[in-house]
# Entry
Amino acid sequence: MKKNLFIAFEGIDGSGKSTQVKLLKDKLEQAGLKVYTTCEPTESPIGKIIRDIFTHKMEADHRVIAGLFVADRLDHLLNKTNGIIKMLEEGYTVITDRYYFSSYAYQSTHMDLNWVIQANSLSANLLKPDVNVFIDITPEQSMERLKKGRTSIELYETLENLQNVRNKYFEVMELLQSVEEIFKTNGNRDAETISNEIWNNLERRFN
Ligand SMILES: Nc1ncnc2c1ncn2[C@@H]1O[C@H](COP(=O)(O)OP(=O)(O)O)[C@@H](O)[C@H]1O
Ligand SMILES: Cc1cn([C@H]2C[C@H](O)[C@@H](COP(=O)(O)OP(=O)(O)O)O2)c(=O)[nH]c1=O
# Structure
């Protein structure tokens, strides 16, 4: 293993992204790599505004939310202290829980997909993931898991919206299949099985 990769996890809410990020981090560290895990919305002040909107502490139009994600993502990449580009330069393998495919899927359920892709083009031109890992679960499974683990339901967490978002993910993955590396995995299996499948797919990419 020599190359340090940038890996993005994608999927609807509750698909198991953070579980899989952790399992992959453990495997990569056991293989001797330095691993930096991160997420969007980020922990930055812009990310905090987004979280406040999602938890209903603030209100904002969907177009404002789309713009905030564009800014949050650019800071995620370019931040001089812990930006993804800096961490890659320092030799870390970087795993992010969500990246621009999340905007393509979630924001395009409320506005034009091409606008969302254009608005994120600065990020896409700066850094494309070596692989986007898409974990697929049904919106019904998602709602089941969210109900178990949450005390409140966030802005986009309704059955109908998650159905739309999942459809958008498939639409945009097809649209961009020639320019993006995408690995799809069935998230309706036990976490270890999914993790092993992801590992089998990723291992060769490090050589
Ligand atoms: N493969 C799986 N099968 C069943 N439940 C899972 C699986 N992976 C994660 N979970 C559970 O589903 C919930 C959401 O998982 P999480 O990893 O936080 O998803 P996400 O980061 O995509 O929202 C958590 O309660 C987690 O324990
Ligand atoms: C990164 C990103 C997230 N989101 C949404 C998806 C989630 O509903 C919400 C919070 O993301 P996240 O904390 O990853 O939620 P979960 O763990 O439930 O998947 O932000 C967007 O709408 N656009 C984006 O670009």
